[in-house]
Amino acid sequence: MANIxxxxxxxxxxPLKMIYDRIQLSRxxxxxxxxxxxxxxxxxxxxxxxxxxxxxxxxxxxRRERELIAVAVSTSNQCEYCIxxxxxxxxxxxxxxxxxxxxxxxxxxxxAREQAILSFAKQLTLSPGKTEREMNALRSIGLTDRxxxxxxxxxxxxxxxxxxxxxxxxxxxxxYKTTCEPDFLFxx
Length: 188
Known about the structure:
Layout: H1 14-27, H2 32-35, H3 41-56, H4 63-76, H5 80-92, H6 97-104, H7 112-126, H8 132-140, H9 145-167
């Protein structure tokens, strides 16, 4: 499961049980990337709030674009856990396998806007201080400062999550598809 103790759904009590119950209700199960936070329910709750805000709340970036960013960043970081989860999210959003695979490496099969977004996300992931060319490309195709901010936040979020998954050895759960429901509404 991971290289640290994770409190199972059956063992959970108090605030952790309440959080797990809400996750199961909205997502169909508790993914290991969330369960790895179980020793710190406050961190889990904060993580869920950030995830909700960046991935599901209103944004000038589409949900498709945000999930494409997840796959592109996770591919750059070689995080199989997140690649697998977010490719499933893209399938549920109706993308073809060709489009899904393009998010990882072959961006030219996507729209010009998506190519520019993913190029920036990859550059920010691999060389964060060297994004001027990609930033200029975003501006040249008309992205607003708000869109660039959201792009940067989503990219940073997936770098954060990839490091949790990779650093703690989080393994893909056998039933991961049950935790990939298309909507997520976790409010505080």
